[in-house]
Amino acid sequence: MKRLQFQKFIFYAVLLLMTTVYIGPFIYQFFISISQSKDVFGDPVKLLQPPNWTFQNYANVWVDLPFKQWLFNSLFITLVQTIMNVFFSALAGFVFARLTFPGRKFLFGLLISSLTVPVIILLVPKFIFMNNLRLVNTYAGLILPNLITITNIFLMKQFFETIPKDLEEAALIDGCSYFRIFWQIFLPVSTPALAAVAIYTFQGSWNEFLWPVTLAITSDKFTLPVGVGFLKNQFQSDWPLLMAGTLLITLPTLCIFLVFQRYFVQGVAASGGKE
Amino acid sequence: MPQPSTRQRDMITIAWLFLGFPLLLIGLFVFFPIGYSLFISFFDWNLVTNQRTFIGLANYTRLFSDSLFWKSTGNTILYTIGVVPIQTFLALFLAFVMNQKIRGRSFFRAAFYIPAITSSVVTSTLFIALFSKQGLINQLFGLENDWLTNPNTAMLTIMANNIWTTSGYFMVSFLAGLQSIPNSLYEAARIDGASTWQQFWKITVPMVRPVTYFVLVLGLIGCFQVFDQIFIMSAGGPVNSTTTLSYYVYVNGFKYFKLGYAAAAAIVLAVLIFSANQVQNRYFKPEVD
Amino acid sequence: MSKLTTCWRYVLVLSIVFTFSGCQSTDTKLTRLSGWSSNPVEEKLVAGVLADFHREKPAVNFKYEPIPGNYTEKIQLMLGTHTAPDVFYLRGETAPSYMRFNVLEPLNQYAADTTFRIDDFYPALLKSFQKGDTLYGVPKDFNPYVLFYNKAMFGEAGLTHPPQNWKELEAFSRRMTKDTNGDGKPDQYGLVLEPTIEMIMAFVYQNGGDFQKEDGTLGILDKNFLDALEYYVRLYRTGAATIPSDLSAKWNGECFGTKKCAMVISSGWLIPELRTNYNDVDWGVAELPVGRQKATIVFTNAYAMPKESIHKKDGWQIIDYLTSQDGLKSVVKQGLALPPRRSVAQNLGLYNDPVKRVFLQSAEFARTFQTTLPERWYEEASVALQMIYFDNKTPREAMEALNRQIESGILQ
Amino acid sequence: MATVEIRNLVKQYPGAAKAAIPNANLTIDDQSFVVLVGPSGCGKSTLLRMIAGLEEISGGELLIDGQRMNDLSPKDRDIAMVFQNYALYPHMSVYENMAFGLKLRKFSKAEIDNRVRAAADILDMKELLDRKPKAMSGGQRQRVAIGRAIVREPKVFLFDEPLSNLDAKLRVQMRVEIKRLHQRLKATMVYVTHDQVEAMTMGDKIVVLKAGVIQQADSPMNLYNNPANLFVAGFIGSPSMNFGRGTLVAQDKTLRFVNSALDFQIPASLADTLVGQVGKEIIFGFRPESIYDICFPSGKTLTEPQRITIDVTEPIGSETFLYFSLQDQVCCMRTLSDSQYQPNQTIDVGFDTERLYFFDPQTEQRIG
Q1: What ipTM was estimated for this complex?
Q2: Residue C379: exposure state from Cβ atoms within 10 A (0-12, 13-18, ≥19)
Q3: Which of A100, A191, D186, D355 has its CA 20 to 30 A from that of B120?
Q4: For chain B, which chains pass the contact test of at least 3 CB pairs under 8 Å?
């Protein structure tokens, strides 16, 4: 009995330690963000004293920086990408899961194999391409390349394959066209998968850095990560401001994650379970 | 070969119709760039002046005589070798812990997962604060190291950042794998007298091999491409000790505007990833039952 | 179900419309002016001057778009992607590559206007933006390296004047380097130098050397260059001077402000720091000590227009105003920038100011540090200096390595 | 209402060596209830799906009411289908499920409402209309699936093993209901099952398939009494027919069936047809209910007594099955439930001479 309790104690001690390692930095970040003094380093205890707290840094982020513009850009780009991505990856996933046509296997294999191609290899050609279309530093340029994600197609295909074939055939007999089957039967039935893909895409788009940092040149086209990333150079000594800004970027994904945790986990599980 | 019937033809038409726009996008932004990258790599192509000259393989020969290229390749490999095993093991360990009967499991799971959903800009900025000379880490451990400006520790710090953010993500992959292991297996092992630790090594580890493989593949691809953290935390420095291939490509392309040269380096990176994957396939791929 | 469907469809259509309509990049009717934004104060200042301009010339429709972060790369990127602003700041150090790429509008014709009086500018500044006789930028401000010294520490050490030459610099510095608490490590240094190529180049120029010679070949293995470098490094290695990171500081201004050293080589940007953060320091400035000749490094910026601009007339009006007597006056009055026009400095009486006079006089023998090498040379040079300061290589070894790296073709 | 004609229908899957259905011919009369039965993989579902239009027709013709249907899509064939897994749209209520096909065909709201309510009435599920499929039992779901077919008032109803996901009791109940529905709607129905009991109890006409080939198509009792071949004989009936191999021997102007366990005279009525097989191997078949203990009067003409040893007795309540071996073949015999047989008991039995079946071992066709 004693041994068991000791084991339990060790177990919870390890768990607690791990938890601290994983969320401790965010708590540190929060306390820096509400610090009155710009001199945040040194003895960490002084960050914990209430008289030193202020929320002014958050107000400063909002007022002094083009934060509103960046927030709008981030939201706009992310939402468009998420909605379109869900739609198009579902559409393509439906085709690969349900329709037979010559070259299907080959095409799908091609898509999957392209997943190992490093993103950086696409950067230069994509940029030249966008430049030729005069889309550098535009919303269209920022949005277009990420309207569809191959992983999402894969996820949707996986999910659609679990939907009984009967359902599709019943709909065919009921008089549905393929688009209607997709739109009125498969989509409504696939809410969990769509949610997973949507959340997934939202998170990816929201946090995307390489493409916007390359393509967005002027501040009015920056997304939040890019904007705040540059703030780092500009306000190197103003850690409370920086931390307030970074914490604000984290909030949307954090909220979405906490609310839809279940779908999130499903999405990762589905992409990781089989290959 | 019989002629496809009307219905088959319909289906083919519909399939292509549905796939049209997605494939167009993928073609434009994935497949075309891959080919175009190769094309560009044979040119001396300056973005600012938009002049291009065909120079054959000169970009590649220059690349191979550039000591910084070799250094970044070395850094990339070092980084991958340092990060992948630790992050994989940590993820598996976390998943194993999460799979036990514990109170507040979803809280802990969320806690481990939060770094994974956080923007790399945020985690990187956070790490700069944590690992600065007067930052929390030095305060806690009584050190005086300036982690990110010290060439010996800058890479370690970035590696720590990556491990910290991705282990939670892969934990979820493992968790799914773990939950598909029938409980009776553990029960049988307990009756046979296996301790928790033995259960972990003798049942969990072999049973999640397919997931492990998947995590290793993804981890490897991810590590070979590391960029954001480098860009924000160290910009390749100090003394190029954190310049990885991805960053090298970016700098050559968008700081020095040598597009052809950058494309050539990117191609080399792709080949490197491809070969590493082949090695993985060859030696680590679990047999499918 | 039908509700859900309708909702979906609505959102989808809307988002498609949005994507393809809301993406027009920049309003082509406006003349765009861009600079870096180093801090909010400066941004407000520029906005104020521009408001004056707008009052004077309401016909010119313009927009001020500051570019945060990685300015040099961003502007080159914009030039390459046809999105460049119609007027932008050009750093003196980076000017050669722009001029070489032939993407800037020559300004000689515009500046030939007699009311503009181009000959009023300090020649050293103009020279930074000239290729041959062609002018590509109009200087907007400048900042030379000068010597800041702590008067109290000088008094304590019994020194009556700032160092005049290299010998004095070393001797004075040694005299003021001391270990006050007896732990074997000095707590106060005479001089803090930064291990950067710009600061070293001031000494190289004083010694008659150059990084890249007139004919384009490298001068880093020449005796004049190496002697200056060796002198500079020796100050550090023999303990006559130190570097900021050894004092846990980010830059030498911080060391000077916290009274950890008696002298630093720095420029205008240190002054506001001293006034706001370290106002208990009693300081003075002097021209840099002289080597074989008088020389210093100057950092200067100019206004330039891209060749591709479609608003060159309006663009020039902006440049014209901002670099005119009136325009410069209001900038100078409000802030700390030094006017690139001699007449403005004289009219504002800046030559009577004991601090500003030093800066203005330095402009007469200052040089902008420029090379025509591809940008990567700078990283390589930093690596070479790191080798000296952190890997204990001799200056010659490091410069030989740098020379190899540059000559090997990667940088050509 | 409609007839369905299948003429030389062929199903060839691409890449498969053999055709799934080499050549099928079948006529389904108007208002009839036809059951397609056979072991799994025999092609019965394929055939049904070809009628539905869910499978491509590789050759031959499919006519509904005399019209060629081969190239029409399922929705244009005026058929309705009930699936094994119900295939209800999980996101729609019962009402919406039933109305969906009508909506797509642009029926007026009133007409849709009429039909749905009428169908709900027939199937006695008015109170279920607002429910979602998830909230219903298997039987209720099956009812909805049938209701969805009814509202369409199609020319032909197709059922693809609709009862196999239900438990045994419910299955019997639904069987009756579908039968009743058929009588009420007077519609043409094609029903696929692997369960021969279901086939026997429901069909007007049963079509037995094996490996894509129609073995026999006939009324249930004809199929039972006059199986065309070894397969049908073995497939129809439960417990199934017993078989034994032996030789026909001519002796004293009579024919005898002889093997190591059995030796009996073939009745004169059969002797004429079998005389050509003398000296050849032959397969003998008898049903469990046409073998009798000679100790009890049966009122039948029996063959000479044959001695058997009981291995296992299996009382099922209404009757008792006895199992015994003939030449290593397990055979079954049906007896009354009050009989007191014991394992290892030896008894003498005779076969009902009216119900002896003989098959050619090569062709497996019935020869007598």
Answers
A1: 0.77
A2: buried
A3: A191
A4: A, C, D
- Whether residues C403 and C270 share a domain: the answer is yes
Q: Is the pLDDT of residue A144 over 90?
A: no
CATH number at residue C166: 3.40.190.10
Q: What tens-digit pLDDT sequence spans chain C (412 residues)?
A: 445 555 555 556 655 555 555 444 445 678 888 888 766 677 777 888 888 888 888 888 888 888 777 788 888 888 887 888 899 999 998 888 888 888 899 988 888 877 888 888 999 899 999 888 899 999 988 999 999 999 999 998 888 899 999 999 999 998 888 887 777 788 889 999 999 999 999 999 999 989 888 888 888 889 999 999 999 999 998 888 998 888 878 888 889 998 889 999 998 888 888 888 888 889 999 999 998 999 999 999 999 999 888 888 888 888 888 888 888 887 777 666 788 998 888 888 888 988 889 999 999 999 999 888 887 888 888 888 988 988 888 999 999 988 888 887 665 5
CB-CB neighbors (< 8 A) of D84 in chain A: 166
Domains belonging to chain D, first-starting first, are 4-235 (3.40.50.300), 242-359 (2.40.50.140)
B1 domain residue, yes or no: no
Sequence-separated (6 or more) residues with CB below 8 Å from residue C289: C147, C162, C163, C164, C165, C166, C168, C169
Residues in chain B: 289
Residues C267 and C345 occupy one common structural domain: no
Both tokens of A75, joined, read 């939201």
Chain A CB contacts of D86 below 8 Å: 166
Nearest chain D Cα distance for residue C309, angstroms: 59
**Hey, are the CB atoms on B67 and C405 less than 8 Å from each other?**
yes
Rounded to a whole number of angstroms, the CA Rg of chain A reads: 23
Query: Which sign, positive or negative, has the C-alpha torsion A202, A204, A206, A211?
Result: negative
Question: Closest-CA residue in chain B for D55?
Answer: B7
Same domain, B125 and B235: yes
C109: which residues sit within 8 A by CB, 6+ positions away? none
**HEC assignment per residue over chain D:** CCCEEEEEEEECCCCCCCCCEEEEEEEECCCCEEEEECCCCCCHHHHHHHHHCCCCCCEEEEEECCEECCCCCHHHCCEEEECCCCCCCCCCCHHHHHHHHHHHCCCCHHHHHHHHHHHHHHHCCHHHCCCCHHHCCHHHHHHHHHHHHHHCCCCEEEEECCCCCCCHHHHHHHHHHHHHHHHHHCCEEEEEECCHHHHHHHCCEEEEEECCEEEEEECHHHHHHCCCEHHHHHHCCCCCCEEEEEEEEEECCEEEEECCCCEEECCHHHHHHHHHHCCCEEEEEECHHHEEECCCCCCCCECCCEEEEEEEEEECCCEEEEEEEECCEEEEEEEECCCCCCCCCEEEEEEEHHHCEEECCCCCEECC
Residues B127, B257 within the same domain = yes
Cross-chain residue pair A174–D52, CB shorter than 8 Å: no
Domain extent, residue C350, equals: 31-142+298-367
Does residue C339 have a cis bond before it (omega within 30 degrees)? no
Find all residues with CB under 8 Å of A190, minimum gap 6, and list them. A90, A156, A159, A160, A163
- pLDDT tens, residue by residue, A103-127: 888 888 888 888 878 888 888 888 8
Closest chain A residue by Cα to residue B113: A22
CATH architecture of A66-273: Orthogonal Bundle (1.10)
The residue segments making up the domain with residue B32 are: 6-59
Neighbours of chain D (3+ CB pairs under 8 A): A, B, C
Strand, helix or coil at A248? helix
